[in-house]
Amino acid sequence: MLAVAMGVQANPDEVFASLQRAGIAPQAVSLVAQPVDGDAPALFAHNDQNPMTLASTTKLATTLAALDVLGPRFRWQTRAFALGDVRDGVLVGDLLLVGGGDPRLGSDELRQWFTRLRAKGLYRIEGHIVLNRGLFQTQASDHLSTPIPTAENPHHGWPDALAIDEGTLTVELKATPQGPVLSYQPRLEGVNIVNALRVMPRKCASLREPVTAVFQELSDPPRILVQGDWAPGCGPSRWLIATLPGSFFSPLAVEAAWRDAGGELGGGVLQHGDAYMPPQWPRGQRPYAVLESPPLRQVLRDMNKWSNNLMARHVMLSLAKGFPGRPATPQEARKRFNEWLQRQGVAPGDLVLDNGSGLSHGERGRPAVLLHLLRQAWKGPHKDDLLASLPVAGEDGTLATRFKEPEVRGKAFLKTGTLIGTRSLAGYVLARSGRTYAVVAVINDPRADKGVAALDAFVAWVVANG
């Protein structure tokens, strides 16, 4: 039964008219909005019990479980172990770097950490820096339901306990009066950028070969090759190049960070064949140094505001029981997530997570269940951290360019979802009445991308009629 007040529109007719114009049948859509307070019935509910592919609104469930299980102050740790004696600032042996799953670990943070190690008294490593990424134990079969990573798709990256800059190179081309200027970040030791552009005296629109950037890490020496046709009238360009599992990217980035911090290295940075095995060091040995990530609440803002899939997969894996004291597996992470769901009163199968990011079509659930979790979270201890992580309508994140109308702008806090055949929104909406509503809206249809206007119209309807 709908709760209808005097003078409000009982049904969001414009939403269904918009869906019809897009060629999307009502059966392919789920819409539900309910006040967060008390036991008030839904303002509107349509197909909310139907299992749906949720896309990146799945990250809300990952977020809520992490806040409850790990706590908002949880931090990931990258640890360094001195495998030898440190004498007069020189480590006579290797430095073992054990990745702890930090989703935000960047080359800048590494360089700053290494600078602090220099200040602590370590300026030279006689042996090698040895990398270990074994605190996340995954295999190719764990990723069968998600797209295969390619250099062109940074958002498809697999989780990695020692992911640096998310394993992504940024290459930039700037147009100057002297010609094209190329640069890349982060710096990789021994890697140069090669300008193989053909500068043509033509208009940019008439060029035949587009400019491409490729990381050729197996060449000797490794290089970034930029080639294609370019003309003075062409504007700047920017490429994100994703490196694949087993890449030399991390060793090269670590060595560059150590040397840029002023450190000396007698050997090199090694990534042995057992780098993905569970880490081992002398029994009872304490880390020589620890680099902590920002707290979980800060990571969740980055994750949800910009729908970062790799961060979500790291957060999900970190739910595994015993982590980081023992390696995390997807199976253990899902088990602990399902135990958390059960404590929330959710029946088995009503919400299914694979890797926590929404990249998998197997991550499905009843919109009514996601709504239930949102309403419970509103009354829980982590409401403020959840709200702070969500894109704000018309203002930031993935909603920066949507909901520009003054009636809606700033009044909706919503996680977006985009997947082939799926568009979704979920979160909270502040209605004109002053009441706050939990909202979930999902389209599962091959033409889902044409239904975004209908989802936005539903949010506007809740603002006006709630």
Q: Could you name the ranges where pLDDT drops below 50 across 5 or more consecutive residues? A: 1-8
Largest sheet: 7 strands, mixed
**Count, helices:** 10
How far apart the termini lie comes to: 15 Å
**What percentage of residues falls in helices of 4 or more residues?**
10-25%
DSSP strand (E) fraction? 25-35%
General form: globular
What does this structure look like?
- By secondary structure, the protein is an alpha+beta fold.
- It has 3 domains: 13-72 and 297-465, DD-peptidase/beta-lactamase superfamily (Beta-lactamase, 3-Layer(aba) Sandwich); 77-146 and 246-294, 3-Layer(bba) Sandwich (D-tyrosyl-trna(Tyr) Deacylase, Chain: A); 165-242, no CATH class.
- It contains 10 helices and 21 strands.
- The strands form 5 sheets. Strands 4, 5, 6, 7, 14, 15 and 16 form a 7-stranded mixed sheet that branches.
- Helix 2 (58-69) packs antiparallel against helix 5.
- The longest helix has 14 residues, at 107-120.
- It is globular and about 75 Å long.
- Mean pLDDT is 94; it is low at 1-8.
Describe this structure in a few short sentences.
By secondary structure, the protein is of the alpha+beta class. The protein has helices spanning 13-22, 58-69, 107-120, 249-260, 296-305, 309-317, 330-343, 367-378, 383-389, 452-465, and strands at residues 29-35, 44-46, 52-53, 77-87, 90-98, 124-125, 129-132, 168-176, 179-185, 192-199, 212-216, 223-230, 237-242, 264-265, 269-270, 289-292, 351-352, 364-365, 412-419, 422-430, 436-444.
